[in-house]
Give the backbone structure.
Amino acid sequence: MRVYHDKLFSKKFKRPKFSVQYKVDRKTASNFHSHSGFEIVWLQNGETTYIFEENVFHLTKGQIIFFKSTDFHKVRLRKGVPYERVVILFSEDFLSFKHPIFEKFTHFLDSLPSPQYVLTLQPWKEEYLQQIVDNLLFEQENEDLWEKESALELYFLEFLLFIGRDLQSSVVQNTPLITNRDSRKGEMLERILKEINIVWNTDWRLDNLAQTLHLNKYYLCHFFKKELGLTIHEYILQRRINEAKKLLHSTSVPIHQVSEKTGFTSPSNFIRSFKKQVNMTPKQFRSKANIL
């Protein structure tokens, strides 16, 4: 039985260049969110649903999902169902040197028609992949190892080589990568999300949204809340705040224009909503983001 602890060597607010975690808890971010870098999740036991802006993926044991962490996403768990997984987070500048495996893997992710995909790991491959993951966990958990950072880089490249070959094999054989939509419910939720993502930064109306989707508005609200655990209004607010964070961090657009671009009725409404969600004003957030 593994005894590794979840541990990120990072500063508050700033993401690490690399981390690997073995997790059995059911703790997930309560809100939709995004952050820098890439994420790979190997589900080792149980099942869960990953929800993105337009795609919904239902993961079961032995499947691996990989995606850009900048994608707006949320994990939805099923009550009483385990959620045992390995989570790897990494940024493009993690390696201290250029390596073709790393560059080809990130380029492959950039060139995919959809920004998220799921692969099903064949059972006979799980033992070998687990050895690589155990090596990564061991290096991360032990501070005084000789050439620890170099070892992390090498084992991570081995991990990418393993995953990359499966991906490349799928492309060469023209085998579609598994998206594993969660049946009719997943398809319906994707359809709703696609329509919401058209209007999230506009003066949208529930009646119009329901009419576009050919759904009763009360059914629409009930279905959305049941499947995502939040209302349509809450989802749109989280989307607006997330997009505002990106603008505040990566541009010098004035705050009143950030408010306008993200669909808020006024700068004061934006500042009030942002502070309630993020626990700091947009100005404070921009200052901290630029310092780190």
Notes: Residues 1-13 have pLDDT under 50 and may be disordered.
